[in-house]
Amino acid sequence: MAKLSLMMMIALTYGLVMQSPVDGVEFVAPPEPVAQGDVTQIVIKGMTAGSKVEGSWRGEPLQFFETAQGDYGSLVGIDLRLKPGAYPLEVHVNPPADRSWTWRKNLEVVDTDYGVQRLTLPEGMVTLDAATLKRVRKEGARFSALWPKRTANRYWRGNFVRPVPGKLTTPFGLGRILNGEPRSPHSGVDMRAALGDPVRAANHGRVILVGEFYFHGKAVVIDHGWGLYTMYFHLSQVKVAERDLVGKNAIIGLAGSTGRSTAPHLHWGVRLGGARVDPLALIRATEG
Ligand SMILES: [Zn+2]
Q1: Domain that holds residue 281
Q2: Ligand 1 centroid to 215 CA: how many Å?
Q3: Are residues 6 and 130 in the same domain?
């Protein structure tokens, strides 16, 4: 009797946590450790058609899509300033004819050095007057309010593409110290673009924000669904309106130097599940 209850306890403890995977089903976990600002993909191979897969990363829901190879995949975004450490990744699989089971793993995130840029500028360019500060805060809040929304529709398909062909001029993640004061790190990439060059949507999506902002200038934000957003800053002209559906590679605006910018270029940024991630990592994670 005592033995049986011990076995039952083991079954309860380990049964839920570590049930064996179904034959032929294979997890391809992201290579570790994972860099801050990275986009990584979890893949589940050999799933029976009609299986339901759900998951979470740090308690935030993950959604799964069918990959080009017919596997189940999900994108995981690691915020640029996520504290290094091990964070729980959980995948729950529910095959149509088999028992459901859960796979759990800690994903190790490491401190990633993207370099630091020290700039000295005239104080007047750095210190904002009260009215400008108020404007900047209000604009920042408009952006922040967008990220928690997870649109149920997935608009994006296949790989993400570069919005302009130009080379990177300022990399992702660069820390900035302005007149000795640490500022927000560069949470996107700056790409070379001439005034008036077409800027294209990185994937299918819905335009959810169009406006002119103090730092970002003329800007467009596209919601690709499932908590994935791309943003395009410093445009000279915007060619879309809020609520427009756009296709991958559609021209959404023209490059420029509006907002706080010294020369025409495109600042391209990505948010995934609220995390500030490297746009080029999103391209890498979705190609092939
Ligand atoms: Zn930039």
Answers
A1: 116-286
A2: 10
A3: no
Residue 67 CA, ligand 1 centroid: distance in Å: 31
In this predicted structure, what is the pLDDT of residue 19? 41
Judge if 140 and 87 occupy the same domain. Answer: no
Closest CA relative to residue 216, chosen from 123, 135, 147: 135
| Among the ranges given (21-25, 30-34, 112-116), the one the predictor scored with the smallest mean pLDDT | 21-25
Find the 212 Cα to ligand 1 centroid distance in Å: 16
Per the structure block, which two tokens stand in for 143?
Answer: 């952006």
Distance (Å) from CA 245 to ligand 1 centroid: 25
Distance CA 286, CA 58 (A): 22
**Rounded distance from Cα 242 to ligand 1 centre (Å):** 23
Q: Which of 89, 110, 131 is the last residue of a domain?
A: 110
- Which ranges in the chain belong to alpha helices (H)? 2-18, 123-126, 130-144, 279-286
Tell me the CA–centroid distance for residue 91 and ligand 1, in Å. Answer: 35
Residue 260 CA to ligand 1 center (angstroms) comes to 10
Residue type, 187: S
Specify whether 68 is located in the same domain as 145. Answer: no
Please check whether residues 50 and 152 belong to one and the same domain.
no
Picking from 110, 135, 164, the residue at the C-terminal end of a domain is 110
Cα of 267 from ligand 1 centre, angstroms: 4
**Distance in Å, CA 288 to ligand 1 centroid:** 27
Q: How many folded domains does the chain comprise?
A: 2
Please tell me whether residue 208 adopts helix, strand or coil conformation. Answer: strand
Does residue 90 share a domain with residue 155? no
Q: What is the pTM of this model?
A: 0.90
Mean pLDDT score of the chain: 89
The CATH code of the domain that includes 213 is 2.70.70.10
> Would you say how long the chain is, in residues?
288
Alpha carbon of 12 to those of 7, 202, 262: distances in Å?
Answer: 9, 46, 62
